[in-house]
Amino acid sequence: MELGDVFCPSSHEQHSLNSRETRLEEALENLCERILDYSVHAERKGSLRYAKGQSQTMATLKGLVQKGVKVDLGIPLELWDEPSVEVTFLKKQCETMLEEFEDVVGDWYFHHQEQPLQHFLCEGHVLPASETACLQETWTGKEKITDGQEKTEEEEQDQEEEEMTNTPVHSQHDPEDL
Questions:
Q1: So what's the pLDDT on residue 125?
Q2: Is the pTM of this model over 0.85?
Q3: How far is it, in rounded angstroms, from Cα 73 to Cα 71?
């Protein structure tokens, strides 16, 4: 006896349910793998630190390398674009959460799609009420800085590049280049 037999006695309804189950399984299959497309953007705060694409910091560092500045991050240049340990850990957490809340995701998919999954799953089942503020964060393209002023991404990148070229801790020149 199959799951569809219990809920949908007619063969048409059973086929429809099996098809929906297959679509759900396919959608979840590589969901957590896609987290590896994200990078840590150290210049951002909160959950917005995780976003697709290269961070401003990494873009600045690569720009310095292209200008001939020796930058030592403690890892080879070839690994700079690989997912960080932090992002890889998020992927593992995603897999664990999907396993733990598999029934909840299925319940949402079959019965509660009128609610956004983020609210149904995260607010309703995963996060304690005191930790849901991150779900309201939105990226505006501007970052708050300590003196209360706002800067655009371009202004921040310019300042970051200037700081890195003027700070010997972040960049080291090879004595042979001097």
A1: 93
A2: no
A3: 6
